[in-house]
Amino acid sequence: MKAQRLRSACQGILRLWMTVACCQVSFAQDLLVTDEKGTPLIGVEVFTDDFNVAGVTNSDGIFRLNRTVTHLSFNYLGYERKRLSQAEIVKRDYLIVLRPVSQLIEEVIILGRNEVRQEEIPFRIETVTKEEIASTQPQTSADALHQHGGVFVQKSQMGGGSPVIRGFEANRVLLVVDGVRMNNAIYRNGHLQNAITVDQAILDKMDVIFGPN
After folding, report:
1. Which residues neighbour 69 within 8 Å (Cβ) at sequence distance 6 or greater?
2. Pick the residue with more confidence: 83 or 6?
């Protein structure tokens, strides 16, 4: 009698276990996360509020959901963050579409290798654009500085050009091309013709900084 009861209990537990397992297997669903164009998003963070379910989408933009949840959150850099209920996910047929988030970037002035906002610059700056250089067709980069940058240029010979800023001659003025300085303390005092060694036609812009910086 006891053996029969024990056998019945074991059979009941086995049936219950098989029922739970079948439910879990039958519930397993693949969530597909894409952008508005239908491109799968790789590495999207998917998690519940308590983080009992957490992971990322694979190389196909798919996340395997193996259990029922109350809500799921989707987080991806540069895209809107979504928090959807189980019913909403089923209604969307397990397809989650994330839209990119637009961000307004403040104007940035690049000085050599430094990037700063315009309102943070405590000194005067004159910028000579590529369009201004092309419109006047200066013979040298020194001429371009003189015409558009408000810089006095000393010419002691044909084709020469030595910029003078606020009375400081070229040996006291830092000349920089793409962050690399063209002059240093080894040069002689007085005027230097380094400014004309750069072809003005290849320059994207020139920044003239009036100040100790």
Report:
1. 48, 53, 86
2. 83
